[in-house]
Predict the structure.
Amino acid sequence: MAAEAAGQVEEPEGGRKALGKAARRRWRPGLRGGWKRALARWFLPLQTSLLFCGDSHLAPIWKGYKAGLFGTRHARCVLVAGATARGLGNPRSATGARQKYLEVLLPPAPRVVPVFLLGEVDCSSVVWLRSAAAGTDPADELVRSVTVYLSFLDEVLAAGYRRILVLAAPLPTVEGSDHHRAHSILRRDITATLRERTELTRRFNQAVAEGCRLRGIDFLDLTAAWTDPTTGLVADRFRARDPLDHHLDEEAAAPVWVAAIRRALRWPRWRDARRG
């Protein structure tokens, strides 16, 4: 995790040889599903690979990839802890996220789909801190984060990527009464309630979703999956065991993330075809 927090690229280790004899046996055509496994071997070089770029909320997805939940699909991950949508417009941001992402995004590689996950830090921290410091409306600060995020996506499109997948920011999990004890020092000064931060996150996702629609970018929103319909807040089963941890529970969230991403990528919906 230390390497990930520094924004370094992780790649799967070892290849098929490292899987061991038991795992390799699953590749051998059997009586049931053998033809599917055989086709998978032949078409593996033609399969699109994924390039995950985001903040620490990518951890459950990358954990699912490490566990083999993405099947034969290859992936890389640039996880920059504390990265924000707002910071994508600042080459000298504290996390350096913009430069770290661009280093792996450019030049675009064939059959690679960038997958972005940002915004939780904006909606639960940056927007409120900037609003308090400058005396501005949180809604105005939210618009600035969305605008910078979409401008960065425009750059990625202009570089030549045919398909991009953007994931909606996850819902906040830490109760307002616990924020003064939060693991992140910056979050201890946040006075907004959990419901206020949740509503801001929903507005952020709606605005980014509309921007993606206009640009022909795929947007995957799992807000309904994380939400308890009786409270409108994040469901208890997706909260981390540590009440001060602002991330979703990895064990509960990983299969939900992976299944949804795999469904979203099942049928190629190229940008040019949608615009036609």
